[in-house]
Structure formats: C-alpha cells, structure tokens
Request: fold
Amino acid sequence: MSGVTGSSRRPEQQNCNRAEMLRRLVCSDCTLSFLIEAHDGISAAIATRAGFEGIWASGLSIASALGYRDANEASWTQVVDVVERIVDTGDRPVLVDGDSGFGNFNNARLLARKLHQRGAAGVALQDSRFPKMNSLVGDRHLLADVSEFSGRLRAVKDAVAEELVLVARVEALIANQPMEEALLRANAYADAGADAILIHSRKNTADEILSFAKKWDNRLSLVIVPTRYHSTPNSKFRDARIAAVIWANQPLRASIAAMRSVCERIVADEGVVGVEPQIAPLEEIFELLEYSELANAEARYLPGPT
Ligand code: SPV
Ligand code: MG
Reply:
C-alpha cells in the first residue's frame, strides 16, 4: 500500500487526484470497474489490500455497523466521520453513498463540501424523499420531484465542481415506476450536470437494468449495484457498456457471518481455543494498520530511552 495511515496523511491535498481516479472508474464505458463496500477504516484497509481500485462507502453498511437502520437514522455528520476513516485507511478513491442528500439542495451541497474536505472522491445522491428506506426493503419508496432533485444536483455541482464526482442515482425502478420514468429522470439528471447515472434495481435478474442500458444508449456512464441480480455474468454488463459495478454489502455480510459463528462457538465451548485457528491473528491487525510505520516514526522523532 503506497500511503501511510492516520495523521501523517493529508487527504485534502490529494482530493483532485482522487476525483480523477474515481472518474476513470465510474465514467468510462470502455472497461468495467468494480467498487467494493467499506463501512469503517479496517474494512477499507482490507478492500485495498485485496486489490480493489475503488471503494463504495455504503450507507447500508455504515448504518448497520453503527447499529442503525438504513432509513436516515444515522446523521450526515456521523456518515462524514466514518467516511474520513475509510478515506484515511483505505487509500483508494471513495465514492460515498450520500442517500438523498439529507434534505434539500442546501443540505446536499453542505454534505458534498464536507465530504470533499474529508477526502472523498465522489458522492452518489439518490432521488428519494427524506427519510429514505433501503432500496431492498419493503415497498414504500417515495420519489423526490424531478425538478427539485435536479436542483439538488446543480447545487452540488456548483459547490464542488470537478473536485467531487457526482453520481445521480435513479430509484424509479425501485419505486415500481415504468422504464419511461427511469429514463426521463436519468435524462433530467444528466442535464443537471451529473457525471454518471446509477440505475438501481431490486429484481433477481438483470433484465430491467440491461433494458434500461439499451434505451439509455450511453448518454452518460452507468453504474449498477447487482446485489439481487448477483449471479449475472460480468460479460452481460460489459456487453451493455456498464462502467462500474458496486458490490455494496458483501464485506459487511461476511463479517456478520464470521462474528456470529465465532461468538456462538465461544458460548458453546466456554472458551476461545476452538476459534483461534479460524480468526485473524492480532499481527494481521498490526500489519493492516501499519504499526511498523509508527515504530519507524518513533525511532525518528522520540528521544531514545534515558
Ligand atoms: C448501499 O449500499 O447503501 C446502497 C445500495 O445504497 S442498496 O442497499 O441496494 O440500497
Ligand atoms: Mg445506500
């Protein structure tokens, strides 16, 4: 990993590069890119070590890790604080799930400015009404007015210009609206200055996403979140010239499964001997968070033992 963690990094000086790096991932219809979810510093470090080029600061995963529901229960400042840890520790461009912007145009542009200050590379804003409900939960998904949401996008663009990639997320298909409504909204958001469109679907197959992509005809790059239609081969996304796939929650779900199994085993055994071989050694934590960098810095900056 090229960077170092913690206070020795100054992300505000690297923001433009980060936005450029993210732009290359989500705004290119020539190569399919992959972003992975992170919800805290250590999940960002793991994603980076695994080789992902970009990180999705998932609203669902951040809220869940904090013990909140993905229904705007976590405040925007809580999200921004977690994003800072993801940025610092992950050392990859971070696209932040900004939900619907936590209010109107003013709240959205404030969020965007703060995310930029904390080193995020981009923000995705979805056209839901506040408070949102996670797109894969239930049937109550109310949409914002198209022109009001377009104003939110324009305000964000005016506030952060090219320094933060702006992804406009269309929730029309989640809200059971027809394809025409999804296309109308995507066109309006492209006109408002979005850099890419995230088209979301909760179907188990990619049919409606692929049909949208065909009709959209690549007016702007497309980003997708194949959580429900995860078995679709990537070749279909490449053929449809999708720019980026977001794997939005798999690391969080992996950690839940692992923690549950380990906790249950410890309760059953009344001890930890049985789980030791399955869990990460402490050395892995020290390595992920670069304790050796701190030891080197101590040698440089602290006086020797007296
Ligand atoms: C998230 O990861 O928070 C997302 C994707 O927005 S979804 O959970 O499908 O809404
Ligand atoms: Mg979300």
